[in-house]
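Researcher: I'd like a structural prediction for the single chain below. Treat it as a standalone chain; there are no partners to consider.
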Amino acid sequence: MDIPGPVGQLETQLDDARSPQEVTAILCHPHPQYGGNMYDGVLHTCTETLLEQGINCIRFNYRGVGASDGTYDNGLGESEDLLAISDWVNLQRTTHKQWWLGYSFGAAVVWRALQAARKVSPAKSVLIAPPTSMLKLSDSTSVTEVTAITGDQDDFVDLEQLNAMQGIAITQINGGDHFFSGHHAQLSQAVAAICGTRGDLSED
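Model: Treating it as a single chain, here is the predicted structure.
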C-alpha cells in the first residue's frame, strides 16, 4: 500500500490486530544509509508484540527506501514522512489514538517529529535505542508520555544524555546491545509492559 508523502508516494505495510483496540502505532525504521527499512528485525519484534496487545501497526519506508519516492534527507525529510503517515491515519481512522515508535535513527525521527506535530500528537511515543551518542536530540517535547528502551551494553546510546532529557521514562535491558542481539524476548516484554492492560488502551 502506498500513502502520499511530501515528495511522492511512501511504501507502507499495514497490519491490523486480530482483536483491535482503537489505537494505531506508526513504526519508524533505522538508518536508511546503513540498510535500514521497514522490515528490520527489531521493528518486526515490536510489531508482533503490539499486534498481540491489540494495537494496529503501520510500518513505512522513508523517502528513497524500497519503493518510496525521493532521496535521503538527513532525518529532516524523514520526520516529515512520519507526519504525512500520521495525517493519513488521522483521516482514515478518526477515532484512533496514535502511538509513534522509532528504532535507532527512527527514534531520532520520532523525537524530531514530536517537536513539529501538527494535527495530532501521539498518545504514546516509544524510542527504541535512541542513538544519543551520535545524534543531537533536543531536550524538550510537548508530549507527556515518552518511553525509551535501551540495552545497557549499547555503545550508541549515551545514557547520561538520555537521563538528562526531560519527560522520558527509561527501561533498560540487561546485556542488550544496539541490536538487542539475543534479547528480543526481553525487548518484547518491555514493549508489552508499555502497552499496559488491554482494557486501558482506549481510555483517555
